[in-house]
Amino acid sequence: MNILLLLIPLSLVLIGVAIWVFVWAVRRGQFDDLDTPALDILREDEHDRPLQAPDPPPGHADAD
Amino acid sequence: MPAPGCFHCGEALPEPPARLVLDGEPREFCCSGCAAAAQWIRDARLDDYYRLRSQPASRVGTDNPDLAAWDREELLAGHARDVMLGGTRGREITVLSDGMHCAACAWLIDRALQRDPGVLETSANAVTGRIRIAWDPQRAPLSRLLARLAALGYRPYLAAGEERERERRRERNRALLRIGLAGLGAMQAMMFAEALYLDTRGEMPLPTRDFFRWITFMVSTPVVFWAGWPFIAGAWRELRLRRPGMDTLVAGSTLLAYFASVAGTVRGSEHVWYDAAVMFVFLLLVARQLEQRARGIASAQVDALARARPAFATRERSDGSRESVPVSAIAVGDIACVAVGEPVPADGVLLDGEARFEEALLTGESSAVRKRAGDPVYAGTACREHAARLRVTGVGSDTRLAQLVRLVEQAQAHRPALARSSERIASRFVAGLAVAALLVYFGWRLHDPARAFEVTLALLVISCPCALSLAVPAALAAAHGALARLGVLAVQPEALERLAETTDVVFDKTGTLGDGRPRLQSVDRLQGLDAAQALRIAMALERDSGHPLALAFVDAADDAPVATSLRAVAGQGIEGMVEGEHWRLGQAGFAAGVADDGGLWLGGARGRARFTVAEGERQDARAAIAALRQEGLIVHLSSGDGDAAVRRFAAELGIDHAHARQSPTDKLAYARALQADGRVVAMVGDGLNDAPVLAGADVSLAIGDGAALAQRAADLVLGGRSLMRVPDAIAVARRTRRIVRQNLGWATAYNLLALPLAAAGLVTPWLAALGMALSSLVVTANSLRLARMRAR
Question: Which of B591, B599, B638, B725 is 20 to 30 A from B105, alpha carbon to alpha carbon?
């Protein structure tokens, strides 16, 4: 049963790590937005198409 | 795919529509703003937006808001904070927008903003309608970024302030952390408890057993006290107010299981119940979070938009030049200028000429009201057709708008209290349990003093009202989920309970049962021309007038000639040439030279005709009212409109109790009178004029496309335009009540069975664990049946 003396502290360390990771993720805002990242995989790949910097929308140039 | 409406926003197309060829496909748009937005989205290679979206965008329109004010330091000082991102100093601000309809909108906003080199970080949230932007003021002025948003149809509003926004995020993160910690801790504590449970024959050496118990104690302590803090704090509050309720029950049973276990660990007695305590905290946190999230989504949006106000107003200096100042700087006696389409910043008196103001926010009347110099103009109304100047007579809390808001708050405070059944049961249960525990303790003291403490603890723990305290939150969480899927957002916590009790439903007319769009009822008093000719001419005149009545004539005739030299005469009507003849359409005196009778007249050299135009009913108004009747509810109609219109409407929809010309105060009095008869009143409305009665009724539902303040006063907000959501929501509420009762019944039955066993000292750890888990499971599974409810 002496193995318990190693295994149980080990499990406590693991849960400590899990909690730390969770806290880190929450603090970094990983759970802030759960909807839009899912859309990213649905769009076509960027490198298949030429990337061009768009002009500002017409009609609003005065605000620039 | 040729869409019936505007390619970008889906609204009806004008004649002629704006046209644009995108990627070889001709597209039609309702306005040049939408066309420009679509062109920009394509050029930015973001046209995946059109594939990803599940809702049409909002109309961009052609009026460019002046956003220069957003760069002013006095605004930024209160609403933005300094941040350091990736080595760059920048600022961060949270703005609100009402145009975000689905996740694709948030996606588009993020991508569109990140194209700008001055943007450091963005996050848009379609659920709460908030957009957080971190930018580098050196490289990009905020107004440029916001102009981009506005050009895509997302007009920015000022959020309540940086401090409150940060507090909101902190709150949410703390709730998430609590759940995370409770989940992980509960898992671990269960694992250790399992080891103890599996030792069925008591072969485990005592030191090992105690080692396990102390470890479990270490793991569960933060769960009970940190993750479970909301319950403990709530219980403390309830006890201080001497109104023990749900939180008392929850905190009581958690702390009981926890301290009983601590006592068991120290004394080396037979049982510990750490696992029960932590599981309980975790499950209840999840249930509560689900319910609060559903409500939070609703209130975040509603509250924010109700508070969004024009941040700046234009003030005229004494030398006639104009300056843009924060609304708070406007004082009584100043001269304020209001551009077309902008909201009036303060109450005032119109200075010169004539102007029209849309007072829908105050009166619910959607057509603009004509004002002459010297007439009062109210804050929150919108200026139409002409720019106006006014001398300010009331600011801040003195405005009509602020008075209405106060009326709402008063009505909310004086709402009749329906006793909450769950709280009543909870406090009775606590009292009963305390008595039972005392009796058992003294009974065992006489019988077998050595076991008295232990048996009493076992009794308290086994009857630990897990199931009882889960009964209500689990059902509420499932019900809020079902409501959200139906498109109904419950804002107030007690909304469901009140809705289930409803006996009478009072509807507003304009914008609620009616759709706010004028419809042609009849053509009469014809002279010199027949009905079809009259309609053709009227349609030609109205088509390009941009007049609100134009909607009534959209489908009036198959083909209409083109009207030329059209001229709108403010407050009178329009005139123009149709097929070589001169015609006028509008008030009787203007168009036909007869006495004004409230009808819409067409007149010319050849003849004249009168049209009757009335508001049409919402598509499913009839079906919704029939469904409400079927549920045994009495339907009332209470409207600010004239007698004839209301009576016609009521007759068409089959409503017996109809009341016309009701002011906001009359409506409130009507609801109060019904309540005095012991009826439970649900009010359905949309305008700000309904806000007081919405707040004063037992339960209120606001239409999703109505005024923001009305939604803030309401308990539930109906998303979309469908009135069928009203009977649907009532059905969900009634079903919820039934399920809560079943849950409570089951929990009581379980306790009735478990208590005698525990009192007799027959409870083994196995039985206790099984009983507790099973009773909670039954309650949860029963509640989940609610989640399956669908819209009719």
Answer: B725
pLDDT above 90: residue B184:
yes
Interface test with B, best of A6, A43, A51, A52 (most B CBs within 10 A): A43
> What pLDDT does residue B3 have?
45
pLDDT digits (tens, 9 = 90+) for B303-323: 554 544 556 678 888 887 777
DSSP state at residue B93: E
CA atoms within 13 A on the CB side of A30: 10
Position with higher pLDDT, B636 vs B399: B636
pLDDT score, position B557: 67
CB–CB of B184 and A51 under 8 A?
no
Q: Locate B562 and state its tokens.
A: 């083109």
Residue B508: active-site member: yes
**Helix or strand holding residue B504 (H, E):** strand B504-507
Helices B466-486 & B765-784 angle (0-180, nearest 10): 20
CB pairs under 8 A between A and B: 119
Count the neighbouring beta carbons within 10 Å of the beta carbon of residue B784: 15
Res. B792 pLDDT band, cuts 50 70 90: low
Residue B271: strand, helix, or coil: coil
**In this predicted complex, what is the ipTM?**
0.73
Closest by Cβ to B64, choosing from A15, A53, A60: A60
Average pLDDT over residues B112-131: 84
In 3D space, the residue among B562, B588, B592 whose CA is nearest the CA of residue B577 turns out to be B562
* Tens-digit pLDDT profile for residues B253-276: 788 889 888 988 998 877 788 887
Residue B320 gets the label, from left (phi > 0), alpha (psi -120 to 50) or beta, of left
Percent of chain B's residues with pLDDT above 90: 5
Q: Among B298, B273, B123, B286, which Cα is nearest to B196's?
A: B273
pLDDT for residue B543 is more than 60? yes
- Find the helix or strand (DSSP H, E) in which B174 lies: helix B162-198
- Domain coordinates in residue numbering, chain B: 1-63, 68-159, 165-306, 486-514+618-734, 529-606
Contact A27 B173 (CB under 8 A): yes
Predicted pLDDT at A18: 94
* Strands (E) located in B317-404: 322-326, 335-338, 347-350, 354-358, 369-372, 376-377, 382-384, 388-394
* CATH code of the domain made up of B68-159: 3.30.70.100
Compute the CA torsion angle B383, B386, B392, B393 (nearest 10 deg): -70
B330 φψ region: left (φ > 0), alpha (ψ -120 to 50), beta (else): beta
User: Model pTM?
Assistant: 0.64
d(CA B541, CA B557): 12
Q: What is the CATH number of domain B486-514+618-734?
A: 3.40.50.1000
